[in-house]
């Protein structure tokens, strides 16, 4: 009796829903770490603590982007070779990815421990906020290894047609995070350090469970990895679109924070921090839907089953558009209730509600852009994926921040997000019309990574 999904032959709608529900749950559960931290910090530390978490997030995001580059690059290529039937090479990519990601996580921890004291000053903060930034970033950095490995282990379990395997471990980690936040912040009064400690320690449960799942219940085999220069370059190049995504978001968030501090002040940063919390959960849902078909697309692309690739892509696009509409309505109706979860200051609540009007509308288009970028990553087309991502997260956003405030005043700061998402949908659609299956012409797939490797040699 058949017990596992076959990504190359089973019905695409069945594959989508089998992967979509656990993917959404995992991404939302992972996103709740920052949401829960912000809720406890806003209530028990104050607006300065909330501003500190927002200020430090671009740097943490950039470091996470480097790890994500390896994780996505490795799992995508592993999936493509699995689709081609080369199980040995697919498994080697698994081992190379795990080892490289561990090394990168350790170096990221060392970097933050050394420079964490300066992060707040780099962001233009002062006084108590600088101390909060240092305490939160350095404490959280101690847990970078389980953070990033949890992410990649979940991906490899999905690639092994076990989409549900990561849900329970991540859920238990989320529950533990809530309990530890209460113990460390409310009961022990450890403040912002307690929030970071709770988030970090909560990662150890899913880390242990996912590792055991990979060792004893998956088809992946832990072996000594064989590092080939060209293959590592392929991994890094393919995952570079994810790094560009994280880097672009990090840079734009840094610019956003600087503009808000200069135009409105730290109270504006706190209001912005509240407004983006529902956005973080929404992005988790969008990525969950987009990545629910990533493994299946990679495998079918490797098997040259392009009709199935198109079907899977369309399922992700339609689902994310409907989800965006739903989230917009939720934000519009419940924005005051959402703001009151995090802060009690009336002026901060009012400003947060105002910002959410703009961001909520932008969410209608966010999922479409994320789906297109993730789709091209699945096809091993990081140039197109990275181009869409950089335009959305950096180029269009900066253009909006430069132009719209001149027309609409401070309202233009928040309207820049809408401008970015709408114009990015247009760019992504034009890319798809020209390159529906990546750089593929006359049934001959042009492997971007091979071109780069030849140039490197």
Describe this structure in words.
The protein is mostly helical. The chain has one domain. The chain contains 16 helices and two strands. The protein has helices at 12-44, 47-84, 87-122, 128-141, 144-159, 167-187, 191-201, 204-217, 229-263, 266-291, 294-302, 306-342, 346-378, 382-408, 411-434, 448-456, and strands spanning 440-441, 444-445. Strands 1-2 form a two-stranded antiparallel ribbon. Helix 11 runs parallel beside helix 13. It is globular and about 60 Å long. The termini are far apart.
Note the topology.
Blueprint: H1 12-44, H2 47-84, H3 87-122, H4 128-141, H5 144-159, H6 167-187, H7 191-201, H8 204-217, H9 229-263, H10 266-291, H11 294-302, H12 306-342, H13 346-378, H14 382-408, H15 411-434, E1 440-441, E2 444-445, H16 448-456
Antiparallel strand pairs: 1-2
Quick structural gist:
With 457 residues, the chain is mostly helical.
List its traits.
single chain; 457 residues; mainly alpha; two-stranded antiparallel ribbon; 16 helices; 2 strands; globular; disordered C terminus
